[in-house]
Amino acid sequence: MTMETAALGEVSQPYRRRWAALFVLLGAEVMDLLDSMITTIAAPSIQGELGGSESLIQWLSAGYTLAMAVGLMTGGRLGDLYGRKRMFLAGAVGFTAASLLCGLAVSPEMLIGARVLQGLCGAVMIPQCLGMIKEMFPPKELGTAFGAFGPVMALGSVGGPLLAGWLIDADLFDAGWRMIFLINLPIGLLVIACGWRFLRGHRSERTARLDLTGVGLASAAAFLLIYPLVQGRELGWPAWSFGSMAASVALFAVFAVHQSRKQRAGGDPLIVISLFRKRAFSGGLLAGLTFFAGMIGFSLILSVYLQAGLHYTPLQAGLAFLPQAIGTLIGFGLAGAGLQEKYGRGLIHLGTLIMAVGVAGFAVTLGLVGEPGNWQISPSLVVIGVGMGLTMSPFFDIVLAGVEPEETGSASGTLTSIQQLGGALGVAVFGTILLGLADDAGGFADAMWFTAWTVAGLLVLTCLLALLMPRRARPETSGGH
User: Domain count of the chain?
Assistant: First the structure.
């Protein structure tokens, strides 16, 4: 071997290693995204076997996303304290074990508890991905590395229902719906093994301390908001449910004061309060909250309507999401073909309006046909998917455009937490509206029609809130999840 060949091998090995590491991180993202959406299809089957009230359908998704939203505030700091590789592997081990508990659940309570544990472990695993990518890849390759996350996010959000439908109908090993969780075992073990082999450990030079008081306040505030939204309908909206939501607002205010004082005292708050003085970032958070509430909430109510209202099998319901997946890929393709650089924030306005038109078209179809078939709702779902791809492609870059470099870590964690909290709120609010109206009206058609129009209105609101965001991202903030 010549010296030139040896030198080439030394250069190419790190290149191969970092791209192998990227696939490991993408595998972790796939597990998270699939499990955040997969129960939208499986929930009716799960309820049929384990029993439980209608709120189980909402808790299967909301429990996961709520735990993820709260845990993300701490997950990134754990990587700084104990090393990103170590915490990524710990999160992956916990996530895989929690998936096994979900597959073995014998009661609704056990399953919901395991879903919460999944969300908490995912919150330890996922935040490490962004930091490790920034440390592994040189600047000229960062855009390509981050660009791989967009299609993965899109396919995961709509591929989860399709996979769930197939696994339930296939009834592999007589496992039924349990296989949607047990499928994580081989994926998780592969991620753990390859992560141990290819990832490199990194730890922040500055040692941060965990703000356990902040974690407690944020967790309690989020729970006091989500719990009455999910359970209030079944219990007849008692006075305590409204008191709980009011207490949530007050506790969020206490959390904000605590974070501000901790920052002024030179401590390490969960959230850098100065971020919220930036109109661009605060506006982006509000837009993200409404967008992800509408996107995740619509997926849930569509799945419930298809199975409970139109009596689709899980596989038929999963296949019904396929046009949306195709539309999402089209949207990402259009954004990646130069539209994102040219129009910046304009893509978010255009995308949310296109999604609103698609959801409105779905509602109009329901009003005209009553019980539509797949071919009748597919055009609307394609339109929704195109809008989703156009919106998500530039969203994270633009929200972070006005953030200073030293605030990027806190800003990224806060934005991702808002994404998960929005999903939990969407599931709680729109699930409650659909199921409540279906009970009152004695059927799903009118309930779905009204709920769909509500989602469309929320997407229009997202379009307006996006006016608070910067017009385009700075070059150095490219990519990101």
Answer: 3
| C-alpha closest to that of 425 among 91, 69, 150 | 69
Model confidence, pTM? 0.80
Closest CA to 39 of 97, 92, 96, 116: 116
Q: Are residues 196 and 53 in the same domain?
A: yes
Q: Tell me if 157 sits within 8 A of 37, measured CB to CB.
A: yes
Q: Are residues 91 and 159 in the same domain?
A: yes
For the chain, first and last CA: distance in Å? 42
Q: Which domain holds residue 202?
A: 9-208
Helix (H) or strand (E) holding 318: helix 314-320
Asked if 350 and 331 touch (Cβ cutoff 8 Å), the reply is: no
In a domain, 1, yes or no: no
**CA–CA separation, 401 and 395 (whole Å):** 10
Q: How far apart are CA 375 and CA 370, in angstroms?
A: 14
The answer on 108 and 13 residing in a single domain is yes
The per-residue pLDDT for range 347-369, each reduced to its tens digit, is 999 999 999 999 999 999 998 88
Q: Which residues contact 86 (CB under 8 A, 6 or more apart)?
A: 201
Helix axes 3-37 and 108-125, enclosed angle (nearest 10)? 150
| Residue that is last in its domain, among 250, 267, 284 | 267
> Residue 233: how many CB atoms within 10 A of its CB?
20
Q: What is the pLDDT of residues 117-142, one digit of tens each?
A: 999 999 888 888 777 777 777 767 76
- What CATH number does residue 163 fall under? 1.20.1250.20
Verify that 330 and 426 share a domain, yes or no: yes
H or E segment and range at residue 481: none
Residue 4 lies in a domain: no
